Amino acid sequence: MRLFFRALLVAALVLAVGAVAPAWAQVKVGILDMQEIIAESVPGQEAMNELRTRFESMRTELDAQNEAIGKLRDELQRQSMVLSQEAQQDKELEYRRKVRDFQDQFQSFQMKMKGEEDRLSEPILELLINVINTYGRQNNFTMIIDGNASGLVYADDTVIITDAVKEELNKAWRAR
């Protein structure tokens, strides 16, 4: 009797797996790298160039301030034995003020750059999502996954669609 139930169970499992297998065979998954697409696409490169040119002068100014702070620190260290206590305190106060001003300006620079980056990337991301959806529908994908965001460890090269989607994004960007 036990042997009969085991045989029946095995037969039921074989039938169940046989019925499910065709459904799995129709699943088509595509994996892409959104960061690579944005960084290497025409719209992504245009946005990065615009950011660079817009903030180059601020970055140069911050670099000059940072260099001046380094020189002031070195000067303070070299003259610490020679200066009177009052003069040393004045130099330290000036140094701290310049460091604080630099930090404030650097934070402001980062916030402005982040805001501008968000503003420039928003239309690119919207277009990229539309391109991915269209590409997925046209090529009968069940799902498309960002490999970096999902924690993907391995994927066969046949399911990687980064280059194809990047090309479609470039076409859509030029056509707009």
Explain the overall architecture:
With 176 residues, the chain is mainly alpha-helical. It has one domain (2-175): Protein Binding, DinI Protein, Chain A (2-Layer Sandwich). It is built from 5 helices and 2 strands, in the order αβαααβα. It has helices spanning 2-25, 34-40, 42-79, 85-138, 162-175; strands spanning 29-32, 143-146. It has a two-stranded parallel sheet with strand order 1-2. Helix 2 packs across helix 3 (42-79), helix 2 packs across helix 5 (162-175) and helix 3 (42-79) packs antiparallel against helix 4.
SSE diagram, text form:
Blueprint lengths: L1 H24 L3 E4 L1 H7 L1 H38 L5 H54 L4 E4 L15 H14 L1
Compact description:
The protein has 176 residues and is mainly alpha-helical. 78% of the residues lie in helices and 5% in strands. It contains 5 helices and 2 strands; from the N terminus they run αβαααβα.
Mean pLDDT: 84
Count of separate structural domains: 1
Percent range of helical residues: over 70%
How much of the residues is beta strand, in percent? under 5%
The parts where pLDDT drops under 50 for at least 5 residues are 1-18
CATH architecture: 2-Layer Sandwich
Identify the notable features of this structure and list them briefly.
two-stranded parallel ribbon, 176 residues, Protein Binding, DinI Protein, Chain A, 5 helices
